[in-house]
Write a structure and sequence with these properties.
The protein is α/β, with parallel strands linked by helices. Helices cover 34% and strands 20% of the residues. The strands form three sheets. It has a six-stranded mixed sheet with strand order 5-4-3-6-7-10, sandwiched between helices. Strands 1-2 form a two-stranded antiparallel ribbon. The C terminus is likely disordered.
Length: 316
């Protein structure tokens, strides 16, 4: 069985719960996604990333004793005053683009009517994005969050950073209760954190169903796009995007322990998604939408997701 066949087949357990074993398989399928920069980054980078900014483009590494020939502008006066000996700052050149992958596994993502939960598809997508960025030579980190907590992973070039990110995503997805306080907005909190974490020139990938999208989130995204490249990966379920009413046919839903009949207003949900897509497009942000009724590899190999194509702008 090929790796693509293995990834496209989900057991009942795989459909409802993320496992690190399943996510690690995407390391062999990283070529399914490419993360070419949409625009010239605003930080000094290596390889095909050319900076518009002039200067050293370096980040602080350590302080050591001053040696003849060192740049006096790099003298660390605080360490010099504390030790009584002249010290100079040593900088390390930024060689890779930082990539932040923010994965939403909150309560609204614990939903699925056909193949898998939206949170499961989000975790698979986060994995292929992470391995794709790593293969390109970028530093990978991110933010995994549910309705009650979050985990921040600093971008690094080692595989361990991806492992920590995927492990955190699995743990938060499995620990997320099905109910949440209506006043909570985990997506808003995550976007605020991304503005603090992402340095200029970073690539920020946000994976969510965006059901909590509001004007405040839109404002934070607009500020984030001024210094970083932002890409949105929306997750939806066929029932949410259906254009026909299903009010006459109650649907049996279950959380694994209890079952009940519920009436879902699919038409209203579909209109909501259309509004969200229009508002994101108005910001000039590249967006891609995936459906939880299909395996991720099917959507990637069939061309349903084109990472190099930018959706046209739509008036909000």
């Amino acid at each position: 069985m090929s790796i693509l066949q293995s990834l496209s087949q989900l057991t009942p357990e795989d459909a409802v719960a993320l496992t690190i074993k399943k996510l690690m398989q995407y390391k062999l399928a990283h070529k399914l996604m490419t993360l070419h920069p949409k625009r010239t980054p605003q930080a000094r980078l290596a390889g095909t990333y050319i900076s518009k900014m002039k200067g050293r483009g370096m980040e602080f590494d350590e302080a050591r004793h001053y040696q003849a020939g060192d740049d006096i502008r790099a003298i660390d006066w605080r360490v010099t005053a504390r030790t009584g000996k002249t010290h100079t700052k040593i900088f390390r050149e930024e060689r890779e683009r930082p990539v932040f992958i923010a994965t939403d596994v909150s309560a609204t993502m614990q939903f699925g009517t056909q193949l898998q939960l939206k949170s499961v598809l989000a975790g698979h997508l986060a994995s292929v994005l992470a391995w794709s960025a790593k293969a390109r030579g970028d530093r990978v980190g991110g933010l995994a969050f549910n309705s009650h907590s979050h985990r921040e992973i600093k971008p690094k070039s080692q595989d361990s950073a991806i492992l920590h990110l995927l492990t955190a995503t699995c743990q938060l997805q499995q620990s997320q209760p099905l109910h949440m306080d209506g006043a909570e907005n985990p997506l808003l909190d995550a976007v605020k954190r991304l503005r603090r974490l992402a340095k200029p020139g970073s690539l920020v990938c946000i994976i969510s169903d965006f059901q909590h999208f509001n004007p405040e989130i839109k404002q934070h995204l607009q500020q984030l796009t001024k210094h970083c490249e932002v890409r949105v990966f929306g997750i939806s379920d066929p029932l949410e995007t259906a254009q026909q009413q299903h009010n006459s046919a109650p649907i049996l839903v279950t959380d694994g322990n209890e079952s009940a009949l519920r009436v879902v207003k699919a038409h209203a949900a579909g209109s909501r998604y259309a509004q969200i897509q229009a508002q994101i497009a108005a910001l000039g942000i590249m967006q891609h939408w995936l459906c939880a009724s299909l395996p991720l590899v099917t959507q990637l190999t069939s061309g349903l997701i084109d990472p190099t194509r930018e959706l046209p702008k739509v008036e909000a």
